[in-house]
Write a structure and sequence with these properties.
By secondary structure, the protein is an all-alpha fold. The chain has 3 helices and no strands. It is elongated and about 55 Å long. It starts with 15 loop residues before the first helix and ends with a helix. About 0% of the residues are buried.
């Protein structure tokens, strides 16, 4: 089975001042700007409860597999 591409590309318009701040933050964290943006979005989604944690996803998969039996 081929591995599914789990990333999507899109264009983001952002003001220059915000972009400069993100680039500086990324450099401080030894990340690329894209990696920093992904991290910021991921953290915001987790904090808001809109992104399930890895343990919850794994538990769901296990429950689904058990229900199929």
């Amino acid at each position: 089975m081929a591995k599914e591409n789990s990333t999507k590309s899109f264009i983001l318009r952002i003001d220059a001042k915000t972009m400069s701040a993100i680039e500086a933050w990324a450099a401080d964290e030894f990340r690329s700007t894209n990696g920093q943006l992904q991290w910021i979005i991921n953290e915001a989604l987790k904090k808001s409860g809109r992104l399930k944690k890895a343990k919850e996803k794994e538990k769901e998969k296990t429950n689904d597999a058990n229900n199929d039996l």
